[in-house]
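The aim of this short unit is practical: by the end, you should be able to scan a pair of folded records and say something sensible about each. We start with the first protein, listed as its amino acid sequence and then its structure tokens.
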Amino acid sequence: MYKSLIKPIFFRFDPEKVHHFTFGALKFFNRIPGVSAIIRANCQVNDSRLEREVFGLKFKNPVGLAAGLDKDAKLYSELENFGFGFIEIGTLTPKGQPGNPKKRLFRLKEDGGLINRMGFNNGGVEEAVERLKKNKGTLIGGNIGKNKVTPNENAIDDYEICFEALFPYVDYFVVNVSSPNTPNLRALQDKEPLMALLNALQIKNNKKEQAKPILLKIAPDLTDDQLLDIIDIVKETKIAGVIATNTTIGRDNLKSIHQQETGGLSGKPLTKRSTEVIRFLSEKSNKAFPIIGVGGIHSAADAIEKLEAGASLVQLYTGFIYEGPGLIKAINKELLSK
């Protein structure tokens, strides 16, 4: 129904407006008694064989929602109804910010992709915390970043503010230094500033009664030498793992008229590269840490490929928009068939 009826209608309108409309509609319909139960009955695959224990957390299935869709933790419960094993919110910043000027989200229909230059638009971490206080059991990842106006030399302060505010309300953290849409953010991926940032967060983490997993989200555009640095950084800082990968600034072999738009490219054009990064990290580290695989998962086969390349869990974003909720169920069904 989604691909034959709903998607063709949605894809005729501006993608950001459709996003806000969809969020409003999902919130409305899930308030109607019985609707949430109907969605769960049709979408969820509940089987103990799908459960995964990764970095000390128990996931009911290995298919999660990537950061970027529910930036402000407005719809995590409703989205979980579609069958996700976990929901990652954010990227959140200490203060709310509008992000980059519109238009900033583009569908590349011929390529099965999206380009976004949203720019960490969010209402600020404290607003999200108020919503997370109402969580009734959804496994939540908190993706954190810095405000646009914060210079890189003060970036650690922003990440620490988000970390402290979210700590009681999320199950794991993701340090986002790989978005291409905040000026100079990717410079924090260099070894020295990245080590300083992760060590600072780990110091705060280790002072807690029970530390929580911290993961690093990396760009697909890193060279092999930079990926080897990432392996060293994970080992030295003792963070829990890596999310591979964020969006790409590459534009190879695209057909869409939107291919020259600036921003991060996601979806099918990223499938191969993100899997390559997962396999490289897994093999070169001798599977020393868990990897969450994300980037261009549009089918069950895409997800299986990432898991076989070395990912412990996978996340959807663009594939969820193009393929609909049925993709989550298809991946879990395929995992059960193996």
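Turning to the second protein, read its sequence before its tokens, just as you did above.
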Amino acid sequence: MSVEMYAALALFCLVSSITPGPNNLMLMSSGATFGFRRTIPHLLGVAIGFVVMVILVGIGLTQLFDLFPVSYQILKVISVAYLLFLAYKIAHSSDAVKNNANTIAEQDEGDENNQPTPISFWQAVAFQWVNPKAWTMALTAISVYAPSQQFAAVLVVAGIFGMINLPSISAWTMLGQELQRVLTSQRRLQRFNWTMATLLVLSLYPVVFI
């Protein structure tokens, strides 16, 4: 791969990683609701999960869709259902603000069942496989920058994506945490999270209608 190709790949990774999408919207909402530290598992799940996805796509995983066309439709249904579930989770995560005032009392009573929690590492890893933007990014990167699907080339693409993707999505999480200075009431945080949930649902348009 030439220097020009490396530069083009790095630029593609940056633009696709830092622009709005389901992962970044969810991370910003989590940063605003739970803070950066509690969002780290979600953050790492996105970064590592996507790198693994690029590698598996690069070594020919998408050939399964050619062998079993129905698997594409199944993935599409799962994608829509899971995104709707995550949108619901985001919309109601602002309850954490209200519950924070009662956290100590609830811990004393041993009742933490109603406490909202950030998306976990494994949930974030799994989400990459039903994330339309992640599929687009992975397929484009492999088809353009590793068309031969040689393992070494695939690893290079995945490695560069990993190095650029992590700081890019971290910026969205930090932005969400900084928004805590503005989202100083439960009502403001609730409106913010409902907006993020709505945008996440709207991101389903390419999946459902295209």
